[in-house]
């Protein structure tokens, strides 16, 4: 049973999404919601993100909405280092600060600003040691930053009781088609 789930995936720019009104965001959120609800029904209690732009912040927005119906659901924002949003534009910072403010738990693992890539590696290790599974939006045909944590999670799952779930481009396409059909009827 997955009680604590890490959610991650592509950053906005990796998907070619540069605007919060991009229609693809709706399908990504719908796919996340579908997976999370199924896991909540099986006992999911915590969603854990590192607060990266894109998939992780969208996942937090989905959880915030789900908490209205699933009041026991909680989420944590555990950043790899302090001030990760320092160089983001004001609109992205505002969204990030709102999500952090609404989180049930928030901390920074290294308690210092960005120094080197080791902070991301340590975050990934911490996430795996402190969760029961991971949900990754990732498509094998479109390389990107999630490939590193996916590879690490699959390796970790081979030697422990750890679940790796993915949402692929095909899953997103199916959601988009379902949504379009439901708009017609």
Describe the protein.
Helix 1 crosses helix 6 (169-184). The chain contains six helices and six strands; from the N terminus they run E-H-E-H-E-H-E-H-E-H-E-H. The chain has helices spanning 23-41, 55-66, 90-102, 118-129, 146-158, 169-184, and strands at 4-9, 46-49, 74-79, 105-108, 133-137, 163-167. The protein is an alpha/beta fold and 185 residues long. Strands 4-3-2-1-5-6 form a six-stranded parallel sheet, with helices on both faces. Strand 5 (133-137), helix 5 (146-158) and strand 6 form a beta-alpha-beta unit. It has one domain (4-143, 165-184): 3-Layer(aba) Sandwich (Rossmann fold).
Low-confidence stretches are none
Strand elements, count:
6
The gyration radius over C-alpha positions equals 16 Å
Beta-strand portion reads 15-25%
Strand order of the largest sheet: 4-3-2-1-5-6
Cα distance spanning the termini = 37 Å
Helix content: 40-55%
């Amino acid at each position: 049973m997955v009680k604590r789930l890490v959610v991650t995936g592509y950053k906005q720019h990796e998907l070619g999404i540069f605007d919060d009104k991009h229609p693809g965001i709706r399908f990504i959120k719908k796919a996340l919601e579908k997976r999370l609800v199924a896991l909540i029904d099986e006992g999911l209690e915590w969603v854990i993100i590192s607060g990266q732009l894109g998939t992780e912040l969208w996942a937090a927005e989905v959880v915030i909405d789900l908490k209205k119906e699933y009041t026991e659901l909680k989420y944590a924002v555990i950043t790899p280092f302090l001030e990760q949003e320092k160089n983001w534009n004001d609109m992205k910072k505002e969204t990030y600060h709102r999500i952090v403010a609404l989180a049930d738990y928030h901390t920074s693992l290294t308690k210092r600003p960005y120094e080197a890539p080791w902070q991301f590696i340590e975050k990934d290790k911490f996430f795996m040691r402190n969760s029961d599974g991971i949900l990754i939006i990732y498509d094998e045909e479109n390389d990107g930053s999630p490939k590193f944590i996916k590879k690490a999670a699959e390796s970790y799952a081979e030697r422990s009781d750890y679940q790796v779930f993915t949402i692929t481009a095909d899953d997103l396409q199916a959601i988009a088609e379902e949504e379009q059909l439901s708009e017609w009827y």
